[in-house]
Predict the structure of Phenylacetate--CoA ligase family protein.
Amino acid sequence: MHKSFGNLDAAWKEASFAYKSVPFFRNRPSLPPAASPAAGFLDIPMTSKPDYRKNFPAGVLADGRSVNDPYVQRYQSSGTSGDRLVSVIHAFKLADRMANCLSVNKRLGFLLDEPKIRMCRYAAPNCSDVECSNPNTSMEDRILQDGTLVLPVYHDLLTTPEPMLKRAFDELHSYEPNVWYVDPMHLSVLIKKARASGWKFDMGRKVSVLLTYTFATQALLRQLATLCEGHFPVASVMAMSEFGFVGLACEEGNLHLNDKDYYLEFIKMEAPDDRDDLWELVITSVGDKLCPHIRYRTNDIYRLLGPCKCGSAMPAVAFQGRVKDLVRLPSGRYVTPGELDALVGAPRWIDIFQLTFQKAGNFIFRYSGEAEPNAEELAALRSKLEGLLESKSLRMEAVHYFPFERGGKFQLVRTG
């Protein structure tokens, strides 16, 4: 099953340009003849990250283009699903995509009137092109070409030395950003440390907090609300190094994907249970004359929502995680990070949690928090988890430490 959103004519134009002007596509068979535009577009072979990694730069850039051209910005993926990928995008395309995404949330409207977006980034080290895990780097060493300041960060977030956290806290203020572009887990740790150490956030600033990089659980959002609610608008962002902004959450909290700058396709995953209703996102860029992406598999999984109360015409979706993060049960059903988060919610006694799936069909649910659960709360959550996992082989552990990926990202669901 297939659903699509966006301008199909613009997507065809993009594909025609790519097959005429980009070596990788030119070396493929010609565009298939179309019985109808929609059916014909489905006949175009999909692309994926290895295609762009293997053929970068000459094979995937349009004829006559170079990574050294004016206004070209370079980004590296974090490498969470394989080797790192270098992507290039025109700065003006990035700005257009960001502006269209910001338009879905009125609380962020002030950014559209700002003469310049001044951003601080706080996330895992592998998400940046600069050396931010070295405690000896200066603030100037960590400013990207677009003016974004990357705050100092440790590979193992939960063991970050206090001086490094203090530098991140101080720079978050001294640089005077109007956007905090952050991993919700990283910001949560910084808020906790600031509260414990008596460091005071300046709440009089005009700042927006954009959450990205890893899954923003309800438990993390509860913690961030203690600092930001009533002061700073907070919204989750779907972004990819290949494209920049892809979607943003509206005031209702629903994620809307940008169907103005992209043609969006959703391919339904095969599953024996109708409750899964999971769709993989495939993206075609629109108007990209540098490095067009045609039917690009994101490996990101969503549920499709109906019309949103906010009134935005951009499709509303619920992000469920990446393909690699899905756990398939013996029944054939999938358990997704999104479904797990919806079940766990934001009880006062959970700040961080993680589900580990073991090959023998056993599960471990680890959690930590500043409060203690009572026996009834713990039993109720166990019962719900056993129902979700279709298993009684579940161990629940209160812990003080969670393992992070080698690149510094946190996995909500892991296999081990």
User: Anything to note?
Assistant: The chain has a mean pLDDT of 91. The longest helix spans residues 375-389. The two ends are 33 Å apart (CA to CA).
